[in-house]
Specification:
Layout: H1 2-15, E1 31-38, E2 42-49, E3 68-71, E4 74-78, E5 80-81, E6 86-92, E7 98-105, E8 108-115, E9 122-134, E10 141-152, E11 159-167, E12 179-182, E13 206-209, E14 217-226, H2 228-237, E15 240-248, H3 250-265, E16 284-296, H4 299-303
Parallel strand pairs: 1-16
Antiparallel strand pairs: 1-2, 2-6, 3-4, 3-7, 5-6, 7-8, 9-10, 10-14, 11-13, 11-15, 12-14, 15-16
InterPro entries: DUF4249 (IPR025345)
Protein name: DUF4249 domain-containing protein
Pfam family, one: DUF4249
């Protein structure tokens, strides 16, 4: 009798159907702008169209669009179309200027603007100190360098990015990245610095705002993790290193922060959806710049492998 009741119950559950209509607005494709630029290089803008999730259409390049570039509200030039949705300026971008692009695509008027920040010179490299760090809760130890450098923060709100460039005559390398970590607040991992974590993150580059030291001389500390095979390859390549220090447009900082959150959570079923910051009027994407200064940094000398 119990089995009969179970069969009846299952039959009832699967035979009772109700159609629930779901209305999804027919969202038209919008132009997507990828326009991240820096001082000393021509502007490059990539144009494509957006596609609704679940749509069978492909993301396509937007070709032969007339993109006008303005500098400090004065028309400068029409960008040159090359191929595959890529457009270029004929002149390099300069720090301290306001830039704006305007164009029409997919029957939409699109515009975006960005201020390319003033240069923030590195005053000096203060120290490069060999050390070791515990990289997880199990006590695994890695070789590291603690690096401090000093710069003069400018008045107002500013945002910065640190990267280490490997300069070598050999173009193809297996260790083409130097992995960095925070000693101070981890603005990318949303954690505190290395001293307060059983685990910490390593990154290809670091970002941070000037909230805690606005308009002052700042000595900033960060770290590099390396393996012995990295050092062997650097020595073999006779590699040199440069500290890349970028001052970021606020829109670029927000775009990179929210993009990383999106990448880190888009496969997490329980994570809240993350919206990537955009400053494109009438479209999606980013048009924003960063100003770069460089300083040579002797990592091999600090390791004792000159």
């Amino acid at each position: 009798m119990k089995n009969i009741l179970t069969i009846i119950l299952l039959f009832t559950l699967f035979s009772c159907e109700k159609t629930i209509p779901i209305e999804i607005d027919n969202v038209e494709p919008r132009p997507v702008v990828n326009g991240m630029f820096e001082n000393g290089k021509p502007l490059k803008v990539e144009l494509s169209n957006s596609v609704l999730v679940g749509n069978e259409g492909d993301i396509g390049n937007l070709e032969n669009i007339d993109i006008e570039l303005f500098t400090n509200d004065t028309f400068q030039e029409q960008l040159i179309y090359e191929s595959d949705g890529n457009y270029y300026s004929s002149n390099a971008m300069e720090a301290g200027n306001n830039y704006r692009i305007e164009f029409n695509a997919l029957n939409k008027n699109i515009s975006a603007s960005s201020y390319l920040p003033d240069s923030v010179p590195i005053v000096r490299i203060d120290s490069i100190v060999p050390t070791t760090i515990s990289v997880d809760q199990f006590g695994a130890i890695e070789s590291a360098l603690g690096i401090t450098f000093t710069f003069d923060d400018l008045p107002g709100n500013h945002y910065y990015l640190i990267d280490i460039a490997i300069i070598s005559d050999i173009q193809q390398t297996t260790t083409d990245r130097v992995w960095l970590f925070y000693y101070e607040t981890d603005y990318m991992g949303l954690n505190t610095g290395i001293g307060n974590n059983a685990e910490f993150n390593v990154w290809e580059y670091l970002r941070f705002p000037d909230d805690e030291f606005n308009n002052s001389r700042k000595t900033y500390k960060f770290g590099i993790v390396y393996e012995e095979y990295d050092v062997d390859e650097w020595v073999e390549q006779n590699a040199r290193f440069e500290l890349y220090f970028y001052a970021l447009d606020p829109d670029l900082y927000l775009y990179l922060q929210t993009r990383d959150v999106f990448w880190n959570t888009n496969e997490d079923f329980f994570a809240e959806s993350a919206n990537i910051h955009t400053n494109i009027n009438g479209g999606l994407g980013i048009f924003a710049g960063a100003t770069l200064v460089k300083k040579e940094i002797d990592l091999l000398g600090a390791i004792g492998k000159e």
